Amino acid sequence: MVNWIGIAAINMAIAVALGAFGAHGLKNLVSLQQLEWWHTATLYLFVHALGLLIVGVLIRLRYATQAPAWLLQVGIIIFAGSLYAMTLGAPRWFGAITPIGGVLMIAGWLWLAISAFTIKPAAAK
What gap in Å lies between CA 75 and CA 45, rounded to an integer? Predict the structure, then answer.
């Protein structure tokens, strides 16, 4: 089984590091629009990393399957990754894949919601 709690913690560490880099290292190197992309990417990375931590705990407690975790993680990579890439000089068309990451994150949360209504914990079975 994948250690989603560990992956979530790594995501949070990356979010802190990239947030600090954006606030201090990029300020004078990129446009205001690019800095906004960076901040949006960092916000979504951090919030969804925290969510992934919760999902990891729910998986260990057998309240959820791994599917929401995979959807969230891939969504984080595509959503935040595309925004980071555009900030660092990738072509603007790269932003066309950003919504795919958002849709995956939404799907992850919806899958978790469905799981919450349908999966009973091992002790309750």
Answer: 9
For the stretch 9-18, contacts whose Cβ atoms lie closer than 8 Å and that sit 24 or more positions apart, written own/partner, are 9/49, 9/53, 11/45, 11/48, 11/49, 11/52, 11/73, 11/76, 12/46, 12/49, 12/50, 12/53, 14/45, 14/49, 15/42, 15/45, 15/46, 15/49, 16/46, 18/42, 18/45, 18/84
pLDDT digit string (tens) for 21-73?
A: 998 999 889 999 999 999 999 999 999 999 999 999 999 999 999 999 999 99
Q: How far is CA 20 from the centre of its chain?
A: 17
Q: Which domain holds residue 49?
A: 4-124
